[in-house]
Design goal:
The structure is a homodimer.
Chain A (H helix, E strand, L loop, with lengths): L3 H11 L12 H7 L2 E6 L9 H11 L2 H6 L1 E4 L3 H13 L3 E6 L4 H9 L3 E5 L7 H12 L2 E2 L6 H20 L5 E6 L4 H13 L3 E8 L4 H8 L25 H8 L4 E3 L1 H14 L10 H8 L8 E6 L6 H11 L4
Chain lengths: ~325, ~325
């Protein structure tokens, strides 16, 4: 279903569209973390997160007639922007159903990219699925799932092809790759790519404390769910449970999960700002936080961490710098 | 003296050391600026600014015996870090003479990179030259000038080789390249590289208001000096006058200068944060500020702007976001 060939095909479709992000490092971070650390700054990707890869992969693979009717997505913001930009590039309509409490910047950007944004109340009882079903049926839209969709996993997996290519060029044969993990689309995609192109690198999912569904699922061997769906600043990686498609891949290929606190994510945001000069959102800084603050749960001499997105409101970013900007 | 062959030779010496930075763009910025804008984020370079290129270029070109005695530099911070890291990589001593009012982060980082930092009082009358002469004579150090040094200009010029390569790949034949300009090392280096590899691109220096020595010098045809040497947040690009070596190059190859206010630099920092997810310091955001706020002084459909550095104290960055973080 999802395999390396789909990822390579997605890479072909993304060529000239997705940005080729570098691997960054810093002697200060190596000292802080006690090992070699490289970051993959997908905050520099179009729309400010890796999600453009999956969005463009899925939209570009639709047959033109289907695509012409438009696409629909559920998203707290990064998948929304990724799908919106991809649809905009093909000149087709995009409807995005977003929680009303998503960061304002993500809502504004999604609208500015030409999408029709429909807000729903995440905490109240309104069913976003019923809303989506109705819109899909009425307009003949195609649903682009945020992670449990092979074409999306394939797009996110192109991140892993680039990590493998750069790691091989740097002579990195062994190591752990820490990935900010929500439903597991990026994590499973990278794991599949590394299995093929850099088999000495092992993926480990990183989640916010209290939203560690993947970590618990990997431990128990079956899909576990989170009790809550909101109430954490890492909005980009809050998902109810690993996906039906992503979980078997994670189970086969990943090491154990790691969890980090909200405060550690804020601290990692400040450190990414100071040392890599890039902007990370809280959920996008989770893997870096694990590299910095979970040293004893990591074995390898070299870790590679994703900074999966940088779409954060100004107030939140200022708060991170006010608290940790001088402690970097 | 300084020419394209020196730049190509520097590029060879920097291979595998300097980071190859990308060109970034954003539909939001294109709309804001009213034309196509690409940014060259040298804040992502090692040490957080393009200055590593010139530092490494100069230190790597010294004969081993001379290099072994160590190097010395005067710098408010970015050249300091560039030279310090280059010296550290070669395992040779570096002495950096810095103004006591330089941003604390730059002082701290230079020390952390292994350099011996000597502070002097920029406003008072203490002569940094006398201090430097004494240290140089006592220890047999080699002075690495921040811009009026052909090997440094050659290193900075490698930025221009990359701009030319990417512009050619994007099919950009004509355009203006706005460069944050202090003494003119980066500006003249880029201008020389573009003359050879992308002759349709014309460099234009960008300076802070009140520190527009290069702009006035280009207008009058001879070297003009600034009345003051401090008192502006764009510390990275405050210099007394264009260099003896850089000015003739600027005069031959550059278009007229542009000037921007401190406030416009703060606004551009917030926009770079929001739209490119990169960290710019005030002086490093000057060229982007010109692209955003001097539209009527720019002619081309396409502009390429340098973000020359990202070494800024947390308080200053928070102030930029507090003022402009929601106006991006």
């Amino acid at each position: 279903m999802s395999d390396i060939n789909m990822i390579r095909a997605a890479a072909e479709r993304l060529k000239g569209h997705a940005r080729r992000t570098p691997l960054l490092n810093s002697p200060f971070i190596d000292t802080f973390a006690g090992r070699r650390v490289f970051v993959k700054p997908e905050c520099l990707q179009h729309t400010g997160s890796f999600k453009y890869r999956g969005g463009r992969s899925a939209v570009s693979a639709l047959d033109p007639e289907t695509r012409g009717r438009g696409v629909i997505a559920f998203s707290s913001g990064n998948h929304a922007q990724g799908v919106a930009l991809a649809a905009h590039e093909f000149g087709v309509p995009a409807v995005i159903i977003m929680p009303a409490d998503a960061p304002q910047m993500k809502i504004d950007n999604t609208r500015a990219l030409g999408a029709e944004v429909v807000l729903y109340d995440r905490v109240g009882g309104e069913s976003r699925e019923a809303l989506g079903d109705r819109l899909t049926a009425e307009r003949g839209l195609t649903l682009i799932r945020p992670y449990d969709e092979p074409l999306v996993i394939a797009g996110q997996g192109t991140t892993g092809l680039e990590i493998a290519e750069d790691a091989n060029a740097l002579g990195i044969k062994q190591g752990e790759v820490l990935v900010c993990c929500g439903g597991g689309g990026l994590t499973s995609g990278i794991a599949l790519a590394l299995e093929a192109d850099a088999p000495g690198l092992r993926v480990r999912p990183v989640e916010p404390q209290g939203f560690d569904d993947v970590t618990r699922s990997l431990k128990s061997g079956h899909i576990e769910t989170n009790n809550q769906q909101s109430g954490n600043i890492c909005d980009a990686i809050l998902t109810p449970a690993p996906g039906q498609i992503t979980f078997p891949i994670l189970q086969r290929l990943c090491g154990s999960g790691l969890t980090v606190s909200e405060d550690e994510c804020l601290h990692a945001m400040a450190i990414a700002w100071a040392r890599f000069k890039v902007v990370a959102e809280p959920g996008g800084a989770a893997a870096l936080a694990a590299a910095l603050f979970r040293k004893d749960q990591i074995e390898s001499e070299t870790v590679i961490v994703t900074i999966s997105g940088g779409n954060v409101d100004s107030e939140m970013f200022q708060a991170a710098l006010a608290k940790y900007g001088d402690d970097v």
